[in-house]
Fold this protein.
Amino acid sequence: MRKSPYQKAKAVEKLFSHLDADIQKFYSKSSMRCLAGCGKCCTKPNIDATVLEFLPLAMHYYMTGQAEQKLEDLQVKNSLCHNFSLTSEEVGSGFCQNYNYRGLICRLFGASAAEAKGNKLKIYTCNIIKESQPEAFQKTTAEINEENFAPVVSHYYRQLANIDPDLARNYYPINEATKKALEFILHYYAYRKPPKGFKKAA
């Protein structure tokens, strides 16, 4: 039986819950941290993501009666993630307005590892952390290759693809990925009964 968008969104949320637990384990062993109030990575234009990882956000919009308005808002071309609220353009500080529904790319960055040459792991993070916390960065890099406690980026993307290979196959800028996720949900439920708890737009 094919899963509905609602069921797929719940499956993605379950995967995110497992990842969040793995990230907490990572932080319990590493002193590396994002700088307070920093949102520099979120200001990078056209960060690529899959439709599937933003299905929970799109479903949240749909269930709370915001889907049509959000879809209209996303028609406006903007290289900055629509979820990010910039508080200082000069230093790149800000916050995510939908933190609980952020995508897989957002969750992994800064608290995971990527596979490198020679079966080695390297920290998947930014230059700001590398330069501001060099000792913690070097120590954590060595430790993850000895103890293997960091979530691995490719492992989680494979698990994501297992939920729906089609929705996880292609990468788009975050706003485009969210837009496509909304379109997917709205098309599916156009002639079907919405999930329990659905709220109509005012």
Q: What stands out?
A: The CA atoms of residues 54 and 102 lie 7 Å apart.
